[in-house]
Specification:
The protein is an alpha/beta fold. Among the domains are: 291 residues, 3-Layer(aba) Sandwich (Rossmann fold); 61 residues. Helices cover 54% and strands 10% of the residues. A seven-stranded parallel beta sheet has the order 3-2-1-4-5-7-11, with helices on both faces. A two-stranded parallel ribbon has the order 6-13. Strands 8-10 form a two-stranded parallel ribbon. Helix 6 packs across helix 7, helix 10 crosses helix 17 and helix 12 crosses helix 17. It is elongated. 41% of the residues are buried. The protein binds ligand LBKI3ST6 and NADPH dihydro-nicotinamide-adenine-dinucleotide phosphate. NADPH dihydro-nicotinamide-adenine-dinucleotide phosphate binds next to helix 2 and strand 8.
Length: 517
């Protein structure tokens, strides 16, 4: 490996990571273990979940394919991982006294990734996790005797009520402490009722609470070295540890899958709007570089890094649609509902028309078929869930934002040539068609666990679906025509005229072929 200031910096350091079991957290843990192999220990704040203890969850995570390269380099990589039990919504983050003592004694750098990223999260819970837990983690960080940097992962959409977003922390929509105090005594139904008024021109509680969290981080800037990373729409990995790694349905991934399965046929999005996707490995490389820079340079103010692609290497939703469809036609998903053929439109009425014709009508027909064959209807339920998800995402695919990326450029200029390679976050080199193809194949392999060797069978299934569609369309056409004929004398005359013309042609060809023999 080329000499690396960043890897050198992390050598011998103890790192605390929240959200390590999540999409980005896992990539962060993997990258640290692979590219900063002399890091002393990674302390992961993890809660028990779904009947699994935190140790079992971390052990299962390490088995994941994502860690194959690290496993190859160092089969003993587990020894660096120290799981710490923590429920971030509990007082004191639910960390035991002995663990608090251990963490305050040894942690050098904190990466705060944990959050609820659901768009429909009730405000109280989003506030608890995204704001109050951040505040508590900052308090814990202040007690750490050897802390060098605190890196907070925010979102580029925290200020999505603005069109142009600079790398600054904007004044919060409300003073976080005031909101926390007021919501404390309100019951859930009151909070639900006033939520739209509170979030104002933001689309959901997620972006609103992430904006408040940034303000909470800024309030601590004099006491600890903090930096904020603001990724846009985080997608599958571009290069590391291998192209196309993705493990969830969030953001566009669920949309790609639904389109690949032939379920999603229409969606409201602006073809010409910038699709600000950012590969997960780029975000993590920037995060690690920002950790190094914050700790070593100790900038006076909290630096914010907008981590986006639109201003540097723009790509649009219309182009995404084209490449997603083309990839899934060449590499079909298994057991597709219909042939992949999704179109995006910014026109509300056209979208509603296609929802009726291409979503609801086929779902009704299929559910009828299921009922008649003694099975439980399910398609309408799936479409209702899909429509809910799309409804929540449309805000982001129907408009453009402009993010300033001066701090990101400054940081890139500070890296050594070796670090620029090992911790690459230069998206000018990103080849979009290739990236989208790997992304779609990644959803097939790692989200749906489909085997690439089954592609011929999936293609055969698509051919069967095409034949069903041709047969259905022909039957429908004949049926409509027959109904029409039964009601109109003129249609009957046209029909008899066409049929007799066909007969005349047929007998003419038969006669001419008999003559030529
Ligand atoms: C082919 C044409 C493509 C053109 C592309 C055009 C547009 C792209 C579309 C969108 C891009 C915009 C993305 C904006 C991101 C903004 C940036 C951020 O800050 S990222 C953080 C983003 N957060 C999210 O993405 C979370 C959004 N999800 C939710 O809020 C919720 O999951 C929900 C959508 C409200 C659904 O909640 P519900 O309670 O009903 O379900 P669950 O979450 O419990 O999930 C149940 C089940 O469904 C799976 N699932 C979840 N989401 C989807 C989905 N979008 N599509 C399909 N399936 C989905 C989930 O994994 C669960 O599965 P299982 O039961 O097996 O565990
Ligand atoms: N994904 C994206 O497109 C984007 C994400 N971001 C930001 O990046 C960060 C990481 O996002 P991402 O990895 O996608 O999110 P995930 O939903 O994949 O991961 C969230 C993580 O937070 C943990 N967590 C949630 N609730 C609790 C709790 N009560 N106690 C302890 N841990 C908890 C989860 O743990 P558990 O496994 O136990 O649930 C999980 O590890 C977030 O801050 C998000 O706002 C920003 C822009 C875009």
């Amino acid at each position: 490996m080329a000499s690396s200031h960043i890897a050198e910096y992390y050598a011998g350091k103890s790192v605390l990571i929240t959200g390590a079991t999540g999409f980005m957290g896992k990539v962060l843990v993997e990258k640290m273990l692979r590219s900063c192999p002399r890091v002393s220990a990674l302390y992961l704040l993890v809660r028990p979940k779904a009947g699994q203890s935190m140790q079992e969850r971390v052990a299962a995570m390490m088995e994941c394919k994502l860690f194959d390269r690290v496993r190859e380099d160092n089969p003993d990589f587990h020894s660096k991982i120290v799981p710490v039990s923590s429920e971030l919504t509990q007082p004191g983050l639910g960390i035991g006294a002995a663990d608090v003592e251990r963490l305050t004694a040894c942690i050098n750098i904190v990466f705060h990734c944990a959050a609820t990223i659901r768009f429909d999260e009730p405000l109280k819970h989003a506030l608890q996790l995204n704001v109050i837990a951040t505040q508590q983690l900052l308090s814990l960080a202040q007690q750490m005797h050897h802390l060098e940097a605190f890196i907070h992962i925010s979102t580029a959409y925290a200020n999505c009520n603005r069109r142009h977003i600079d790398e600054i922390i904007y004044p919060p929509p409300v003073e976080p402490k005031k909101l926390i105090d007021s919501l404390e005594w309100m019951d859930d139904s009151i909070v639900r009722d006033i939520t739209p008024r509170l979030i104002g021109d933001r689309p959901n509680t997620y972006t609103y609470t992430k904006a408040l969290a940034e303000c909470v981080v800024q309030q601590e800037r004099g006491k600890i070295n903090v930096a904020i990373i603001r990724p846009s729409i985080v997608g599958a990995s571009w290069q590391e540890p291998f192209p196309g790694w993705i493990d969830n349905f969030n953001g566009p991934s669920g949309i790609f899958i639904a389109a690949g399965k032939g379920i999603l046929r229409t969606m409201r999005a602006n073809n010409d709007a910038v699709a600000d996707l950012i590969p997960v490995d780029v975000v993590i490389n920037l995060t690690l570089a920002a950790g190094w820079y914050t700790a070593v340079q100790k900038p006076k103010s909290a630096l914010v890094y907008n981590c986006t692609t639109g201003g540097i290497n723009p790509f649009h939703w219309g182009e995404i649609e084209h490449h997603v469809m083309s990839t899934f036609k060449r590499n079909p998903l298994e057991q597709a509902f219909r042939r992949p053929n999704a179109n995006i439109t910014s026109n509300y009425l056209i979208n509603q028309y296609w929802i009726l014709v291409s979503h609801k009508f086929p779902a009704l027909l299929y559910d009828l078929f299921l009922r008649l064959s003694g099975q439980k209807p399910q398609m309408m339920r799936i479409f209702n869930r899909l429509h809910k998800a799309i409804g929540l995402l449309e805000y982001f695919s129907s408009q453009d934002w402009e993010w300033n990326s001066e701090n990101l450029n400054m940081l890139m200029s500070q890296l050594s040539p070796g670090d620029r390679k090992t911790f690459n976050f230069d998206v000018r080199q990103l080849n979009w068609p290739e990236y989208i193809e790997n992304y779609c194949i990644g959803t097939k392999k790692y989200v749906l666990n489909e085997d690439m060797s089954e592609i011929p069978a999936a293609r055969q299934h698509l051919r069967k679906l095409r034949n069903i569609r041709y047969t259905f369309n022909t039957v429908l056409l004949v049926f409509i025509w027959r109904v029409f004929i039964a009601r109109s004398q003129m249609a009957r005359n046209i029909w008899y005229f066409v049929v007799s013309l066909c007969f005349k042609f047929l007998s003419y060809f038969r006669a001419s072929s008999t003559l030529s023999k």
